[in-house]
Structures are given as structure tokens and as C-alpha cells.
Amino acid sequence: MRRLLIATAAFLLLGATQATADTVVTDYQDPLQALPSVSRPATDSCTVTAMHHVFANSYGQPYVGTLTPPSSCAGDWTKVVLDWTASSAGRQYDRLAGIWIGGAEVARTSTPEPDPTGITWHFDKDITEFSPLLHQAQPFVVDLGNIVNDTYTGPYDVTVTITYFKADRHHPAPRQADKVLPLAADHNSPGWQALGDGQTYNAQVTVPGNTAKLTAEIYARGGGCEEFWWSNVPTSVSQGNPDAGLCGGGTYREVDVAVDGHPAGAVMPYPTIYTGGVAPMLWRPISAIDAIVTLPYTIDLSPFIGTLTDGKAHTITLTPPKGIVDVWTLGGNLFATTDPHTKRVTGELRTADVPEAQVHTDLTGTGIDVTATTTVDRSWHTEGVLHTSQGRITVKAGGQWTFANTTSLTDSAARQQTTHRVDGAYTANGRTDRFGFTLDADSTTAYTDSNNYRIDATVHMGRVLRTELGHGRLLAFSDDQIDTSGGFGRTNGQLTYADGQSSERWRGLDDTGRCLDRTLVTAHGWVTGDRTVNARCR
């Protein structure tokens, strides 16, 4: 029952009378985060409205249109920026959404939950890496499955614009991949797939013959019970206590990638929490890390280039985490950088050492009051040789991380505590992408029936990302930390508790290379402090 309460908490929060014992917040500030906005270069630019659409009863009914580049901004661009602005009022779930241009997934997000008076929120994203697709008219697809009825009354009114900034002498076009290969099968439909345990996402791609570098960009999110995978109990516990409403499958998750059936690498997902997760007031108005601006995961597939440049279609396979108890939604793209001085890059795959993860779980306690400690020490490595116009080149890719998660149920599962730590790095030919994920969650539920209950929770979540080139030269850095607490409850069907407080500190390099440090502080759904200072990033 506790898990059922968490999963449906978003439905129960709004539209009740004021109580006396606890604070009841039914109106909150527009959602925001401490992340820096995408910078806008001082060049000539053109903005196109790619979509203005209201998502109401929209499951299985994505928006499908055409994105045409503006003729007044033809030529090379120094930057292309996507802006998403949306509003909703009433009562509604948090919903998953994705955006595709020419079959390429360019953004993934999820929606904040509205209040009765309505909210508006915005995020932006640099999509310059998709420029090879953007010079021609392309299908433009947005999927945001939603339901509107007498109970769940909030449609999502969304506008997406694309701004093209022209390159000039002082703002040249960036060096980047010159071919985007979407993994979507149909460029006029949403390109993701919702997969259960044992299923795979198989995409057919034809790689340019002179490809000299190939990377995969992967999006991955769990749904249903898999929204809370970081706190799931071992399957033996969930199956042994079927009336407790627990989700099984344990707490370790990774997404695997294969090329023509050969394992090519794995990625470790971030423990994203939707804006209704754990307790909705935790995320009003500061949304959880990765909920609004969802980051993809990158694997370098260059060691496999020698087997892919024969002009034939090849299979890229994405496999959701093993042992999952609900679905994961997977998708992504390939980016090919070509060698202009040769018709074909040949080569050989020398090493593909991608073993299965060895997951170790120690379970203590009895019945439903248990503690599960899970650890994983993971590494994989691939290597190949390429014959390019510059001669023979050795290319390498790899990943390694340590994973530790302890999840405890006490008081007949009325209280659940999770401590989650991941530290690791992806490497590829002199580039190292380091990551550190932290999550601490503590929630207590006092439940009599659906009209009488109370949930209190505290959550700390953090994500540190650091990209280095060569001998430690810093290319990108961010450190995002959120602390939040709050809860909600009903007495005799009336909302008698709905409150929260939070803080977020984002420190890192923005896209101009400037180091910033911003702290937000909130109480009762409203910002009480917002401070930005210049900082030092190391």
C-alpha cells in the first residue's frame, strides 16, 4: 500500500480546504531550477515556432508537424537553441515527453504538476549538434501522453521554438559530427520504445563509409514501479509480501548497447525522480535533478567502425536493465564524424570486453522489515584499429563505476530509507567523462485508508559531472545538489497537510566557460532566496 500511495500521490494533492494543524499549500510558484540558461550569441538570428499544441487526451496522439529552416538564416550556424514553454492549470499527473526532429531525439523531459490557479515553466537546450539535420525541412514530433477528465483536469499547453544563430567571423560554426543517424524506425512517429524485461530496441542504421568517429547518445527512463528503481526491494521480498504494494527487481540498473549482436558497452542511469515522486510537495517549486532537463548518456562506438563502413545496414541494440518489473523507455541517436580525405575508413575490432555486471545483494531482517545492501564494481572496455587518411589509428572506449545502495524497510514497511551512491567515468580516446550520483531518501507513511493518511519525507539528491581532455584539461563541470523535505495527508477525506521546503545549489561552468554558483531556497512552495555569485571551478 505504501508504494501505491507514493505512485498516486500526485492525484491526491489539490483542491481541498484549509486545515488548522498543518500548513496546506494549494498554490505554488512557477517551477524553476538553478541551472544556467543556454547563452545566446550576439549574431543575426531567426526564430521559428516549431509547435504550439495542447496535449489533453493525447496518449497515442503525438503532435506531428514539419520544421523548416528559415530562409533568412540560411548557411552555417554558430548555435541552434530549442526553447520549451508550457502551462497547465488544475490537477494532473507528471507526464513524460520527448521531441524528435527528422527521427532524432533532441530532447526528453517530464512535466511539473499544476495547481488550481495554473503554472508556467520553461527550459532551453542547445541542439547545435543536430545541425546536419536542420538544413532541410524535417518531420517534427512531440509525444506527451496525457489524460483529461472530470478528475484530472489539467491539459498541457506547449510551445516549442527553434532559434538559429548565424555564424560569422567572431562566432564560427563549431566543430562537430557531420552526420546524425537517428535510431527511430519512423521519422514521423515518436522514436522511443517502452520495453519490459527481456525485450530489446533494435535499430537499423547505415553508417557513412568514411566515418572516422562514431558515438551513441542514449536516453533512458523507468516508468511505473521502475520510476522508483533506486528504492525497489529484492523480488523475493515483494513476492513474499504481495499485500504490501512493494516494487521488486532490486536497486541496480544499467542499459546495455550492442552492435550487430556484439556487446559494445553499458551506461549507468541517474536516479531521476518525477515531480510527483515520493511526495509532490518536495518538488514545488524546485523540480528534481534530471526531471525537466533530462540528459542523455554517451558511449563511443568508434572501435566498431571497421565493421560498419561497408555500406550495409547494421543493427544497434539497446537493452533495458535486467530483472526490471515495469517498463523503461529507451531511445537515441548516433553521431558520425567523417574523414573527408578518403572514401572509406576500414579497420578491425581488437577487443570487446563487456562482461555482464556482477550484482551482489545482502539481505537481512525478517518478513517485511528488511535491509538490502547492493554493491557492483563494474567495468568494460573496447578497442579497435582504424585505417584513415592520417594512417593507422588505435581507438579505445570504456566505462567503470562503483555502485552502492542500501534500502531499509522498518515499522512494517511504514518507513523506507535509501542511501544510493555511484561514482564512475566513461573514457574515449583522451576524453574522460566523470560522474557522481548521490541520493538519500527517507519517507514515513501513516496509513489507515484512502481518506486518512499522512506521508512525510526528506530527500537529498546530487549529480556531479566533469569532462576532462588530455592531461586533466577541464572542458565541462557541474555540481547540482538539492535538499528537500515535506509531505501531505488527509483526514476524513479532507486535505489537512501539504507543505514543503527545499534548496538547490548549482555550481559549474556555463556554456561560455564562466564558472557560476547559484543557490535557491524555498518554503511553502515559494522562493525565499535566490543568489548567484561568480565562482572558481576546478
UniProtKB/TrEMBL annotation:
Which regions form coiled coils? none
Q: Which Pfam families does the annotation name?
A: PNGaseA
UniProt keywords (A-Z) are: Signal
Query: Record's superkingdom?
Result: Bacteria
Q: Does the keyword Signal apply?
A: yes
Instruction: Tell me the first and last residues of the signal peptide.
Output: 1-21
Q: Which residues form the Peptide N-acetyl-beta-D-glucosaminyl asparaginase amidase A N-terminal domain?
A: 44-353
Keyword Zinc, does the record have it? no
Q: What is this protein called?
A: Peptide N-acetyl-beta-D-glucosaminyl asparaginase amidase A
Organism per entry:
Labedaea rhizosphaerae
* Origin organism lineage: Bacteria, Bacillati, Actinomycetota, Actinomycetes, Pseudonocardiales
